[in-house]
């Protein structure tokens, strides 16, 4: 469970949004876990560490960090299923965090997960 929390916090740390609804933040976290207890722990840990700020049902990324697609994302060819939408992929995109790699994602889902779309 600790790895999932670390990856979830790392994912919230690189969101490129000024604000998200709590539901949108949970949508991102669900690429890491669908367990409500772990989701809650990710949100609480991120808030405690200053990664996000919460006001009611709104989440504000607080660090200004972002994913560099050149340095932090790797692509691999193979047979994958997207962690966000479940689509079959021949090329998977993975985000490299200190805690672990997170993915695979399709080309549009990687942008949605990081907030580029």
Summarize, please.
With 117 residues, this protein is of the alpha+beta class.
Task: Name the descriptors.
117 residues, alpha+beta, Arc Repressor Mutant, subunit A, 2 domains, 3-stranded antiparallel β-sheet, 4 helices
Number of strands: 6
Report the helical percentage: 25-40%
Largest sheet descriptor: 3 strands, antiparallel
Q: Mean pLDDT across all residues, rounded?
A: 93
Provide structural commentary.
The structure is a single chain. This protein has 117 residues and is α+β, with helices and mostly antiparallel strands. It has two domains: 2-61, Arc Repressor Mutant, subunit A (Orthogonal Bundle), CATH 1.10.10; 73-114, no CATH class. Helices cover 35% and strands 28% of the residues. Strands 1-3-2 form a three-stranded antiparallel sheet. Helix 1 (2-13) packs across helix 3. The longest helix is centred in the middle third of the chain and has 13 residues, at 36-48. The radius of gyration is 13 Å and the shape is globular. It starts with a helix and ends with a helix.
